[in-house]
Amino acid sequence: MDDTVIVGVDGSPSSLAAVDVAAREARLRGAQLRIVHAFSRASDLDPMIHGVLAQAEQRAADVAPGLEVSRTVASGGTLTVLRSESRHAVLAVLGGRGRGGFGDLLLGSTVVQLAAHGHCPVMAVRGRPDPRGPVLLAADGSAAGAAAAGFAFAEAALRGARLVALHVWNTLNEPTPYEGPGAPLNVVVDLDQLREKHRHRLEEALAPWRAAHPEVCVELLVERSRVRHALLDASREAQLLVTGARGHGGFTGMLLGSVSQALLHHADCPVTVVRGER
Questions:
Q1: CA dist., res. 62 & res. 1, Å (int)
Q2: pTM reported for the whole predicted model
Q3: What is d(CA 68, CA 31) in angstroms, rounded to the nearest whole number?
Q4: Residue among 99, 106, 112 at smallest CA distance from 127
Q5: The pLDDT value given to residue 250
Q6: How far apart are the first and last CA of the chain?
Q7: What is the mean pLDDT of each run of 10 residues along the chain (278 residues)?
Q8: b/e 142-180 (16+ beta carbons within 10 angstroms → b)
Q9: On the CB side of 149, how many CA atoms lie within 13 Å of its CA?
Q10: d(CA 137, CA 230)
């Protein structure tokens, strides 16, 4: 991937606010910033180029003086344009709401579809302004979540932030030792044993990343709760939430799981979805 951060701009306040975030992300990575706009009608192009996109460039310059900034203005569907641009990016940044070419991003499908089908991690800018706190990793210990774990550790190192790896479990997700007709309805569960099993799984999954980033202070949290509820609650104290596209229990045909979608819609801080290798 090229050293480029891309940001989708449509003229909405949300997309312009995303430019600020994207400029900071590009500066943090020593990357360049590319402002991307998709259009369907040529009549809309001139005011966008000389108005909104110029404003977006100025905002980026104000946030990160000296940052290399370029534009891509392309005819076509929003998702098609963004997906194409994501081939050469280290990160794609989108605002929480949009209009026109990026209409109502989080209430619609663009950010979800790009997170599922794009070629780089996708950050949705949402939640409280200027969030502070640790980098929060939605950790499930799965092989599919390894890419998200690596990204979260790298982000914590870049930001000089603490990393909180939160693994959420509940007995509904545990396999039962009984199968078939006539199986007992009540199964005695050793909660302490299950908790230790999940902690061990989490420690094993994160061990390579802890070794690669010894400078990152890591807190491991293993919580018995509802997954979405626990992660959304934890997002109130985080500066960034990092999640995989899907993990344990995910349907193999779904490129973006229901938990990841819930976080994109409702988290109280920016959310980055990181997909593993296809």
A1: 26
A2: 0.86
A3: 8
A4: 106
A5: 40
A6: 16
A7: 87 89 97 92 68 93 97 90 95 75 49 90 92 94 84 97 93 52 55 84 93 97 91 97 70 60 91 82
A8: bebbbbbbbbbbbbbbeeebbbbbbbbbeeeeeeeeeee
A9: 26
A10: 12
Name the token pair of 6. Answer: 């891309």
| Amino acid symbol at 256 | L
251-259, long-range: CB < 8 A, 24+ apart: 255/116, 255/117, 256/112, 256/115, 256/116, 258/228, 259/138, 259/227, 259/228, 259/231
At residue 176, the pLDDT reads 46
Strand ranges across the sheet with 135-138: 69-75, 32-39, 4-8, 91-94, 122-124, 271-274, 240-244, 135-138, 163-169, 218-224
Query: Which run of H or of E encompasses 164?
Result: strand 163-169
Q: How far apart are CA 238 and CA 18, in angstroms?
A: 18
263 contacts 14 by C-beta, under 8 angstroms: no
DSSP output for 80-98: HHHHHHHTT-SEEEE-SS-
Q: Take residue 64 and report the two structure tokens written for it.
A: 């990160």
Instruction: Quote the tokens at residue 185.
Output: 């309805």
The pair of three-digit structure tokens given for residue 32, joined into one six-digit string: 């360049």
**Helix (H) / strand (E) containing 161:** none
Residue 17: per-residue pLDDT: 92
Query: Which residues, in sequence order, are bridge partners of residue 273?
Result: 122, 243
Amino acid at 77: G
Start-end of H helices in the chain: 13-29, 45-47, 53-63, 78-86, 110-117, 146-159, 191-212, 227-234, 258-266
> Residue 246 has what pLDDT?
67
Amino acid residing at 85: E
